[in-house]
Amino acid sequence: MKIVVAGAGYAGTTAANRLARKIDEAQITVVNPSPDFVERVRLHEMIAGSGSATRPLREMLHERIDLVVASIEEIGDGVVTLSTGQDLAFDRLVYAVGSSNEAPQGTYALGGADQAARAHEKLTELGAGATVTVVGGGLTGLEAVSEVATVRPDLSVCIVSEEFGASLSDGARGRVLDVLRSLGVEIVTGRWTPDDDADLVLWAIAGGVHELTATSPLAVDAAGRVAVDEFLRSTSHPNVYAVGDGAAVPGARLSCQAAIPQAAAAADNLVREAKGEAGKPFSMSFVGQNVSLGRANGVIQASHRNDEPTRFWFGGRPAALFKEQVCRATVRWARSGTAVALPGPR
Ligand SMILES: Cc1cc2nc3c(=O)[nH]c(=O)nc-3n(C[C@H](O)[C@H](O)[C@H](O)COP(=O)(O)OP(=O)(O)OC[C@H]3O[C@@H](n4cnc5c(N)ncnc54)[C@H](O)[C@@H]3O)c2cc1C
Fold first, then answer.
1. Cβ(260) to ligand 1 under 6 A?
2. How far apart are CA 39 and CA 88, in angstroms?
3. pLDDT (tens digit per residue) in 240-268
4. Tens digits of per-residue pLDDT, 59-89?
5. DSSP one-letter code for 82
6. Fewer CB within 10 Å, N- or C-terminus of the chain?
7. Cβ(323) – ligand 1 distance below 6 Å
8. Which domains does the chain have, with CATH numbers?
9. For the segment 201-227, what is each residue's pLDDT rounded down to a tens digit?
10. CA 96 → CA 9, 10, 250, distances in Å?
11. Residue 91 and residue 86: Cα distance in Å, rounded?
12. In the beta sheet, which residues pair with residue 114?
C-alpha cells in the first residue's frame, strides 16, 4: 500500500510516524514544503528572539518514511502533483496541510516560519521608542504581545482587538490583562485599520483556509475545511483521511491539542482498514488552554471536556513552566506518533 502524508506539521508528523510503527507493508511518503519541522506554538518566541521554532524534519520522522521536500499543488484521483512537477501515486492520502498564513500587506503573519523570521529581523532593526502593534486578542496574540514586550521593554507595544482572551474564564482573562499592563502593553479595544503607522505589525488572527483545501476536489464544510466522517475520512473521497487545522472535525478548535489525537486516530483507522477491520469513531476531550506570557509568566486555564473554561486556572512562573513542558511534549508526541487524549463528552 502506498500512503502519502500531505504536510508535516504536528498532525502529519504524528500520523506518518504512527503509521510507520504500525503497518510494515506500507510505503509511506511525507511531502512538506520545507526540510524543517515548524513548532508553530513557538513562533512568537522566534519573532521576539527568545527561542527557536524549527528543527530538521528528517530527525522527526521514522527511518522507514520517505521525505519529499515540495508542495502539493493538485490532488487528483489517487495521485498528487508536486511543485517539482512530479506525480506521486497513493492508495491512501493523509491530508494535513494546516491552515493558511496570510496577513494584510505590510503586516507579518504569526503562523509561518518564513514570516516569523522576517518579523524577527525587522524587530532587531527597531531602535528604542519604535512602535509594535499586535492585531488579535486570541491566545496567539496575547502570547506574542507579551513575548515582544518582555524581550524589548524599550519599545512601545500595543495590542488591538475587539475582545481579549474570549475563550478564558473571567479570572484568567483578568490575570492575562494585568500581566500585559505590568509589561507596559497598551490595550486598545476596537478594529485594527491599515492606516496604523506602527513600525512593525504582527497579524495574530486565526489561520484561514489553506488554498489547497479551497482548490482540491475534496468536499468541504461551510467554513471551507475538509469535511470528514466520524472516522476522519473525507466524506467525498474515502481514500483520503483529513486531520489538523485543515479538517472540519466537529467540536475541534485549531490547536495541537486537537491535531495530534486526530492524526493518531486517523492513522489507527487506516491501519484497521488495511487489515480489513472496522474503523473506530474519533472522540476526544479538551483539558485546558495554556498561555505563555513571556518566558517566566503564563496562565493555565482548565476546561470542561467540551472545551468550555472552568473556574479553575493558575498563573505565574508555575504556569510558564507547565506551558514549556506542554510545548516539549508536543514534539515528543509527534516524533513518536503518540497521542494522549481522554474520550470526548457524550
Ligand atoms: C504562535 C502560535 C501559537 C500557538 N500556540 C498553541 C498552543 O499553545 N496550543 C495549541 O494547541 N495550539 C497552538 N497553536 C495552534 C497550532 O499551532 C495549530 O493548531 C497546529 O499547528 C495545527 O497542526 P497541523 O499539523 O494541522 O498544521 P501545521 O502545524 O500548520 O502543519 C501543516 C504542515 O503542512 C505543510 N504544508 C502547507 N501547504 C502544503 C502543501 N501544499 N503541500 C504539502 N505540505 C504543505 C506546512 O508547511 C506545515 O508543515 C498556535 C499557533 C500559533 C501560530
1. no
2. 27
3. 999 999 999 998 989 999 999 999 999 99
4. 999 999 999 999 999 999 999 999 999 999 9
5. E
6. C
7. no
8. 2-33+70-100+208-282 (3.50.50.60)
9. 999 997 788 889 878 899 999 989 999
10. 7, 9, 16
11. 17
12. none
- Taking the centre of ligand 1 as the mean of its atom positions, its distance from the CA of residue 10, in whole angstroms, is 6
Do residues 301 and 291 make contact, with C-beta atoms less than 8 angstroms apart?
yes
Whether the CB of 291 sits within 6 Å of ligand 1: no
Nearest partner of 38 among 342, 345, 330, 337, judged by Cα = 330
- 221: buried, middle or exposed (CB in 10 Å: 19+, 13-18, 0-12)? middle
Task: Tally the C-alpha atoms within 13 A of residue 232's C-alpha that lie toward its C-beta.
Answer: 36
Q: How far is CA 277 from CA 20, 236, 242, 263, 268, in A?
A: 18, 21, 20, 19, 11
Query: In this prediction, what percent of the chain has a pLDDT beyond 90?
Result: 89
Of 212, 245, 215, 211, nearest in space to 228 by CA:
245
Query: Which helix (H) or strand (E) element contains residue 32?
Result: strand 27-32
40 CB under 6 A from ligand 1?
A: yes
Strand partners, 82: 72
The three three-digit cell numbers of residue 336, written as one number: 513518536
What distance in Å separates the CA atoms of residue 252 and residue 270, rounded to the nearest whole number?
A: 21
- Beta strands at 156-161 and 131-135: parallel, antiparallel or unpaired: parallel
Place of cell 510516524: 17
| CB distance 41 to ligand 1 below 6 Å | yes
Residue of 75, 255, 300, 330 with the most ligand 1 atoms within 8 Å of its CB, for mutation: 255
CB distance 43 to ligand 1 below 6 Å: yes
Beta pairing partners, 200: 132
